[in-house]
Amino acid sequence: MISPRKSLGQNFLQDDNIVRKIVASLELKPEDRLVEIGPGTGALTKALVGMCRLSAVEIDRRAVGSLREVFGDRLDVIEADIRKVEARSLAPEGDLRVVGNIPYYITSEILFWVFDQRVSVRDATLMMQQEVAERLTAHPRTKAYGILSVFAQHYAVPERLFAVSRNCFYPRPDVDSSIVRLTLKSSLPAVDDALFRKVVRTTFGKRRKTIRNGLSFMGLTKTEVNGLGDVVGRRPEELTPAEFVVLARMIGELVLAKRA
Fold it and tell me: What is the model's pLDDT at position 260?
């Protein structure tokens, strides 16, 4: 048995019923290309082996050795940090599926890895802190709605599948978890992606203030900001992802006009 390392955020799943529910939710087909992030002791892995074309990406060298010993050539084990792995290297033809019990402390980073790899990824079914799961699926004008809500709903269709008690892990974490499915969108509205992200982050950085106040930190003049319309008088938590796209487009047009 591998001892969990706090430095890696390891909380090993040890509930077979939860494993079965996760596997059932995936509805795997033999031709599916699936990567498991952070398999650890292999609690989920052992139920997935043989069901599809499976790879496992694990950063813990101890776990890598154990997984290779247990599963042999039935499992492609890659010793790496998933955040540094190109999804297309795992599925050159695209359509990669992702599953994992991910460390709480890098949940946001792994989510953005999924978003950034969206050309190659079909969906991601992830175990995460319940509070984060609530943010991903939150609606505008609610306390949980924020940056992660906007990005998750812009790039994907997030769905909370079921809750997982803290008692299902070793060591037992301080919070409960949820399984979330993110189905990546096949097409996105036309917008400069970097600018879109900057607008969302900048305006939510001044969450209690209006959009007008937040945009003043992007180098826009008061006249330019006011020229964006009534939207600048609203607060960021009131805007839908689609409205942020429209706002980013308008700002992009302003930037281009200033360069001309």
Answer: 59
Percentage, residues of the chain above pLDDT 90: 86
DSSP strand pairing (53-58 vs 156-164) = unpaired
- What is d(CA 47, CA 22) in angstroms, rounded to the nearest whole number? 10
**CATH classification of 193-259, choosing from 3.40.190.10, 1.10.8.100, 2.60.40.10, 3.40.50.1820?**
1.10.8.100
Which pLDDT score, from 0 to 100, does residue 2 have? 82
d(CA 176, CA 203): 30
- Contact between 116 and 109 (Cβ < 8 Å): no
The answer, as to whether pTM is greater than 0.90, is yes
* pLDDT value of position 255: 77
Q: Which residue has the tokens 């097409």?
A: 187
Q: Are 36 and 102 in contact (CB under 8 A)?
A: no
- Number of alpha helices (DSSP H) and beta strands (DSSP E) in the chain: 11, 9
| Residue 21 CB contacts under 8 Å (≥ 6 apart), including other chains | 162, 179
Q: What is the DSSP letter of 50?
A: T
**Domains of the chain by residue range:** 6-184, 193-259
Per-residue confidence (pLDDT) for residue 162, from 0 to 100: 98
Fold of 6-184: Rossmann fold (3.40.50)
Show the low-confidence residues of the chain (pLDDT under 50).
Answer: none
For residue 208, what pLDDT is reported?
76
